[in-house]
User: Fold this.
Amino acid sequence: MSSIIEVKQLQKSFGSLDVLKQITFEVKPGEVVAVIGPSGSGKSTMLRSLVHLEEITGGSIFIHGKTLAENGKYAGSAAIRDITSTMGMVFQHFNLFPHLTVRGNLELAPRTLKRESSQVIAARSMELLTKVGLADKADVYPSMLSGGQKQRVAIARALMLNPDILLFDEPTSALDPELTGEVLRVIRQLAEENMTMIIVTHEMNFARDVADRVFFMDNGEIAESGTPEQIFGNPQLERTRTFLNQE
Ligand SMILES: Nc1ncnc2c1ncn2[C@@H]1O[C@H](COP(=O)(O)OP(=O)(O)OP(=O)(O)O)[C@@H](O)[C@H]1O
Ligand SMILES: [Mg+2]
Assistant:
């Protein structure tokens, strides 16, 4: 099966700091990739590059075989919009709009795009809120929600444009431990529904459990990758072992 995400020799530097050094990988449709690694290793920068939240300085990114960036240069804005509209991203700090209700947060992007009627959009927002267990919170504002509820709203919002790729950047690391489970359950359900996902996480048990493949990032590179059994059970590199022992 052909890859849904193809990244070749991706490079990113901030001034003289090389944050991503020639990163190359592919993701197949329905695959779940967990990205682990120490702070500052480039995990967020890699993820953000995939949706053009960063300007890369080298390499290429293809999504569904379409060119998002080639030789360090992103495609034109129409192509970027077209490609990234198939991708949803969920951040550590939820990034909900505080002045909009839960439902308003979900419906903002699709209403702005005007591709569908209000009724269709409203029906989907209720359907997705039901899916994440928050139908009863549709009309409240984000400030009324717990962290776990906010993150479930953020996931529902990311699903509103029917993405076929979801990217998560430490979706549970701002949450108290007792709220982490409810968010991981939603992500696990998406994995069971064969959503293609890249999940940056510090939850090693979750990564082991839900991922098809694990990337260990260190110092701007994918230092080691493999199945969860390989990475957690029999890591090849000393630095992978050192990292896992600290977690
Ligand atoms: N806008 C920026 N300007 C300059 N340097 C940056 C910028 N954003 C990130 N960096 C640097 O790039 C490196 C990688 O950062 P990144 O946020 O991708 O790491 P990370 O693996 O996500 O870390 P964490 O686990 O702490 O989230 C770090 O050294 C960071 O200081
Ligand atoms: Mg990060």
